[in-house]
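**User:**
Make up any protein.

**Assistant:**
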Amino acid sequence: MTEVSAFSLDPATIAAWADVVDDHNPLHLDPEYAAGTRFGTPITHGSLLFALACDALQTSGTPGAVTLRFRAPVPVGSTVSVTVDGPDLRLRCGDAEPVEARVEPEATP
């Protein structure tokens, strides 16, 4: 069964996440500051993308541990879709997959 969740990463969501994790780095929150970086625009916290991936995996009922590898930044203002199909987990931003996700089976005691 495939489950897809879409998340709007608008500035208000990013600001709320910054408050939750106490990470107010201007790279995530300040367009003027971010314009002067190599990214050119505010980018989403990696911890937020990880939390969205973990939530999608848990909601799907698929057991396992998530590992993410960031290939490209996800700009604030993007919509990210998280697809879970069994052990396959994908994060997409438009047509791009800026985050490589891997699900490892849970260790048995």
Remarks:
- The domain at 2-104 is CATH 3.10.129.10 (Thiol Ester Dehydrase; Chain A).
- Strands lie at 2-8, 65-70, 79-85, 88-93, 96-104.
- The first helix runs from residue 11 to 21.
- The first strand starts at residue 2 and ends at 8.
